Amino acid sequence: MARRAETIDLAVLGLLHEGPMHGYELRKRLNLMLGWGRVLSYGTLYPTLKKLLRAGLIEESPGSPAAVTGRPKIVYTVTDAGHREFERLMSEAGPTAWEDDNFDIRFAFFSRTDMEIRLRVLEGRRMRLQERLDRVQRELSMTQAEVDRYAGELQRHGVESVEREVRWISDLIRAERGEPGEGGTAPAAQPSGPA
């Protein structure tokens, strides 16, 4: 649970780097970032905001009045300490950085990360995916005769999904390094460096 909380902290601090936001806007942007499979409730967001406020990583101030209630919306801004904590979290390149729960959020803020850290995270993610792919392919070959058509299709879909992500990560790594793509052509665009 602590790992998920740190991921949400990172996402909130990263979004507030873009500018001040109120809770509803933060939740909407976080849900877009997290994807359809991981919806963030207000019951998770507001305790996170309170924790970040107590730690001095964000500040709150009254914003424009809400249309329905007339009460001012609370607007959150990142502090200097929050900027430092965001940079610290983004500089981590160990195993937690490339796991499923963290990778997408970190990737969303890659433009604010040093290239060497991006490469370590991408290479770690590729290694983790390759391990998963090898395991699933072994299991698939062992169980193919034992499963029905639909279970087999689900396993095949899982293998194809991981293979696609491994190719995507490999392309990103080549682009970071300025290497040609698989077809021998130079990468279309290089991700930008830290902002």
- Indicate the overall shape: globular
Helix count from the secondary structure assignment? 8
| Count of beta strands | 3
Ranges where pLDDT stays below 50 over 5 or more residues in a row are: 186-195
Q: What's a quick, concise take on this entry?
A:
The chain has helices spanning 2-17, 23-34, 42-54, 80-91, 95-98, 100-108, 115-143, 149-177, and strands at 21-22, 58-65, 72-78.
Description of the molecule:
Helices cover 64% and strands 9% of the residues. By secondary structure, it is mainly α. Strands 1-3-2 form a 3-stranded antiparallel sheet. A hairpin with a 6-residue loop joins strand 2 and strand 3 (72-78). Helix 1 (2-17) crosses helix 2 and helix 1 (2-17) runs parallel beside helix 6. The longest helix is centred in the middle third of the chain and has 29 residues, at 115-143. The two termini are 30 Å apart. Mean pLDDT is 83; it is low at 186-195.
Write the layout of secondary structure elements.
Blueprint: H1 2-17, E1 21-22, H2 23-34, H3 42-54, E2 58-65, E3 72-78, H4 80-91, H5 95-98, H6 100-108, H7 115-143, H8 149-177
Antiparallel strand pairs: 1-3, 2-3
Helix pairs in contact: 1-2, 1-3, 1-4, 1-6, 7-8
